[in-house]
Amino acid sequence: MQLETNQRLELTERAAALTRNYERLRTHDLLRGLLTEDYPGRIGLVSSFGAEAAVTLHMVAEIDPYTPVIFLDTWKHFPETLAYRDALVTRLGLCNMQTVTPRPVHLEVEDPDGDLNARDPDRCCHYRKTRPMLQALRAMDCWITGRKRHQADTRRELTLFEVQDRWIKVNPLLDWTPEDVAAYYRAHDLPPHPLTSQGYPSIGCVPCTRPVAPGEDARAGRWADSEKTECGIHFENGKIVRGGT
Ligand code: SF4
């Protein structure tokens, strides 16, 4: 317990030091520093290949195309997302794409009929996203997200660096607006996700995503009929479903 407390303290101090070093840098310079100086070989980008994902993917590809890019294939994604993933990987020249999936043995027990998302979405996310992601991150000390403050009320307080379990997590786009993202796509001629033109500013699994109405938060279409706002990969391990590995 004491060791855990000390490790937690060390990570918290590390996050504070990284914030001091990086908070005034442009996003590209921030990512370059993390990828090449602070965490070379020990950092990955977790990407949903969603509506705004191409920004970080493009920057990472420019800096080091061998950076691990982790995609959590829940087996519930829109076919458009899978096609977009493949097209972007080819277009950007990403060389270390890692698509991770749930363990069939878990789903046979927990979700034999494939409807766990309707009965217990936290548990569904735990087996289809969180646990595969934690496995994929085992060799890393830091991971990059695409989260932004504008996306939802629940993300307004995002910080640049966070501590989650034993990882440093960085949110390099936290202050980017939809206009910033659109300008970046135009400047670099990046293709849009095919569903964005159909009213999907945030795209997850098919049963848990709907288009949003004008004026709604970008993430209002995610788990729209429940209190759930995050999939679980942004919570500390064990807070959603305890027990087992
Ligand atoms: S977003 Fe929905 S379908 Fe996807 S893992 Fe979570 S609960 Fe399951």
- Tell me which CATH architecture of the domain at 2-7 and 44-208 applies here: 3-Layer(aba) Sandwich
Proportion in helices? 25-40%
Q: Report the bound ligands by name, code or SMILES.
A: iron/sulfur cluster
Strand content: 5-15%
Provide the CATH topology of the domain at 2-7 and 44-208: Rossmann fold
SS-derived structural category: alpha/beta
State the CATH superfamily name of the domain at 2-7 and 44-208.
HUPs
Summarize the helix and strand pattern as letters: HHEHEHEHHHEEEH
β-strand number:
6
Radius of gyration: 18 Å
Q: Please summarize the sheet with the most strands.
A: 6 strands, mixed
Q: Strand order, biggest sheet? A: 3-2-1-4-6-5
What is the mean pLDDT?
91
What quaternary form is this?
single chain
What is the global morphology?
globular
Uncertain stretches of 5 or more adjacent residues: none
Distance between the termini: 20 Å
CATH class of the domain at 2-7 and 44-208 reads Alpha Beta
Structure explained in plain terms:
This protein is α/β, with parallel strands linked by helices and 245 residues long. 38% of the residues lie in helices and 9% in strands. The protein has 8 helices and 6 strands; from the N terminus they run H-H-E-H-E-H-E-H-H-H-E-E-E-H. It has helices at residues 2-22, 27-38, 54-63, 79-92, 104-110, 116-119, 121-136, 178-187, and strands spanning 43-46, 69-72, 97-100, 142-144, 161-164, 167-170. Strand 2 (69-72), helix 4 and strand 3 form a beta-alpha-beta unit. Bound molecules: iron/sulfur cluster (SF4). Iron/sulfur cluster binds next to helix 7.
